[in-house]
Every structure is written in structure tokens, then in C-alpha cells.
Model the fold of this input.
Amino acid sequence: MLICFQNLIIAQKYKFIFEFKIIVSMQKIAFVDRDGVINDDTGHYYVYNVEDVKLTEGLISAFKLLDDAGYKIVIVTNQGGIAKGIYTNKEVELIHSNLCKLLKQQGIQEPELYYCPHHESVELCLCKKPQGLLLSKALARFRADNELSFMIGDRETDLKAAEDAGIRGYKVETNKGILSLVKQIVLA
Ligand SMILES: [Mg+2]
Ligand SMILES: [Zn+2]
Done:
């Protein structure tokens, strides 16, 4: 009797650890490209002035849906203009903090930013999309589940990065917004 009871306690202990592990690994990430997806980049090769940041239609609602559905939002963007000396990390980060402020006012989580500051005309790197390193880093850092995570982008390179990181990739039309796609994903 006593042995059975002890076994039960041990079994429950392991069940707890097992369930805990599942909960910990259930984090999911919605990766979103920046230029042409979050902000309309019409007329700009690089967007680095805060006043040039025009959010695409429905962006705030889309982020709210993702937030409510429990996704961590991670922006992944190539900013090769930094390597070329056209603008600096500071400008990229200022645009990001402005976006975060705006989202915070709406009660939406502040997204993480992962960006590649390199350009092959200056130096090769391991992080520029279509490589999946930045996505893989975030997946590892937040212990996110690949099956539950996905990437939205407007270029083939975004889809390649998603594939490289082992997650789903969705392509949207440049500057057309992501709300209808996000609705489809979240409500599926
Ligand atoms: Mg883009
Ligand atoms: Zn890079």
C-alpha cells in the first residue's frame, strides 16, 4: 500500500514536470517584416526618418489581434543602409521606440525588434534575410514552438527566412496591410 502511494506521488511529480515543460514550450511568435508590411515604404528605398513612417492600413488592429491571441510579436528587418552609412542603428531604434509608444497607448504589447545592420556590398553576415538566424535566435530566446509560430513578409526572402528557421511563412502584398491575413490565421 505504502509503496503504491509513493509511486503515485512520484508519478504526479513527473506529471507536473511534464505539464510544466509543455506550458513553458507553448510560447508562440508572430514574426513580422517591417518595410512594406508594418509601414508603407512607397517612394523610399530605405525608411529611416521617423516622419517617413506611415503604418499600413489595419496594422494596429492586426497587432491587437495577435496580442489577444497570445502571440509574442517580433519584427525582423534587414537594414543594410546602416552598413552603407546612410543611417545609423540609432535611427532604426528611434523608429522602433516610436512604434512601441504608439502600441502601448493602445494597450498592445511592445514588439521585439531583431534587425540585420549588414550589407553584402560592405561585409557578409549570417543574419540578413533570407537567412533564418534572427528568427532562430528569437525562437530560442522565447522558447517558442516552431509549429505555432509564423512569419509574415512581403518578399521571397521573408519566406526563405521562415523556411530556414523551420516555421510557416505567409506572403502579403507590399504596402497592403496584414489585417485580413492575421484574421485568417488567428481565427483559423
Ligand atoms: Mg519588406
Ligand atoms: Zn546581418
Residues 28-186 form a domain with the Rossmann fold fold (CATH 3.40.50.1000). The chain has a mean pLDDT of 92. Strands lie at 28-32, 39-40, 54-55, 71-78, 112-116, 150-153, 168-171.
